[in-house]
Amino acid sequence: MQSTPASYTADFEALRPKLLAFTLLQVPDKGHAEDLVQETMLAAIEGLTRYSGTAQFDTWVYSILRHKLIDYIRKQKRGRQLFISDEDTSGLDGMFNAKEHWNADAIPSHWHNPEDLHMRSHFWEIFDLCLLHLPSNTARVFALRELMELETEEICDCLGISEQNCWTILHRARLKLRGCLEKGWFLKESNA
Amino acid sequence: MKSCKQASFLMSKKLDTPLSFIESISLKIHLAMCKSCAECDSQLLSIHTLCQKRHIDTSIKDTDTTQ
Question: Predicted ipTM?
């Protein structure tokens, strides 16, 4: 309980690159992204007395960053740059055949016990790798929707895209992420 | 009948917004007939709920009153 800022220094340093990668999804300007990460760390240090220790330290810091990013995105709205959709509009072609049925190597396998995975930090490492592997705008929209839990209506408003476009991007993101998680985690788990 | 690609679009869309009656019915019929899509549907839902749980105990609680 007597945790001091100093005792978390190593944790902070380990987290910094991950926080920056997560921030860069939403804030392309690196200098600005680094400032936001810095602010998050300062806020976390100031808030250490309130950190109960029940949540994992890194997810607690993420939640602070998440609030800061949502603030940032909402403020950016007026001066937003035109959201350029990713180049890979045909990104799902490899998964489906000409009749739009699953290709043999893309058929979903059965996942064993996905329910308890949120407790396993190694799963989230794979998850983050899969997320960052997506084209940047696809990853951006997915993170806004699933990790920051904004409604699609607000995402569209902030990014200046149509809801149809938003659903299309999320569809692509989810299927690619599904495939990546299956290869990176579930197939390995079932062989273990 | 809908293709798997179209069905997967609706599986994803229903995580973001309620489907229309027609969309919902045609997805259900497809899922009843297509094992691969049924698997995919439950996996997309798993990813959705896992992402929510990632933050479940991390929301900054208003515990300021204790100090």
Answer: 0.84
